[in-house]
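Note to self: keep these together.
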Amino acid sequence: MFRVTTFGESHGGGVGCVIDGVPPRMKLTQEEIQFELDRRRPGQSRITTPRNEFDTCEVLSGLVNDYTTGTPIAVLVRNKDQRSKDYSEMSVAYRPSHADATYDFKYGIRAIAGGGRSSARETIGRVAAGAVAKKILKLVAGCEVLAYVSQVKDVVADNVDHATFTMEQVENNIVRCPDESTAEAMIAQIDEVRNKGDSCGGVVTCVVRNCPKGLGAPVFHKLEADLAFALMSIPATKGFTIGTGFEGVGMLGSTHNDEFYTEEDGNIRTRTNRSGGIQGGISNGEAIEMAVAFKPTSTISRKQNTVLRDGTANELIARGRHDPCVVPRAVPMVESMVALVLVDHLLQQHAQCHLFGDSFFSGGDLGSDVLPPLSETVDSAITAGGKAKEAYSED
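Structure:
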């Protein structure tokens, strides 16, 4: 129900997105979208690509006086700092582990400069749409999506409290790790591989707080399945886990199970959260905790063996401006894709399970033909958690 189309190529005229299914009458400013794009943009620090793009967005439709109209929102970011000549060698030689070859295998033609659509520049549209989705989640359900870099190469951040870490802590250093001492070690690792003309991978961990209960579908569109689908569509991703993930394999059911209890206000909770906030494909109200693995950047300035388009063996030293490690800039990308999935499921849940509530029809008396909803479903969470009044049109 919440639909996003991205468009554009790395060295084309611009990139952006069209967002459809946005509820009308919600206050939304260009500055809110720009805030997220600024977190994603290149040239932020010495450990990111030096490409100099300010990524200033233009909102072309879907807003009137900073309120959503319910019609498609179009966002455009124009490319300014293209250096297509840097890709002359790559027009005939495939970069190892890059999409150069597979795009050619599939289409027989490709946009060579900057990698075209395979470039992470495509994610500008995702992050712009994610800004809208995050605003909806916050207003309607008081829901917060926060990600951080939890691993770079073999440096792991294992002292981050998922219940309390803040965006301010994440944004406090150039690697986006809220654990300051670990962040310094991560930066040192990236500097080391960067100075050698090499690259390294890492992990981004994402936490969703105050997620309403009841999001997700029982079978084919389990919430974790859609989250995995969305996150694995981000460039350079190679792994996804949720909750205990693969570590749960070594545990017994008696240890792994999350026991239920009831709080004084009647809210049903779990004492542990090894399920990662999702059971049976449906959110249970606990924090959703997931992690995404990113491979080392494939474009490096060290000599590598490859082949030309005609199959002839060749050596390649890639030029261009590329991140030595993608994870610092991937943090807002991960948050955005998670937010897009949650908003879509929120709209679906509201449409299916709130139809017989009191918001849609006032004429008929449903009587005993319809059971009243449980108090702790997504509908009550929306009512209790949302703060939409101050940022939503009274009309």
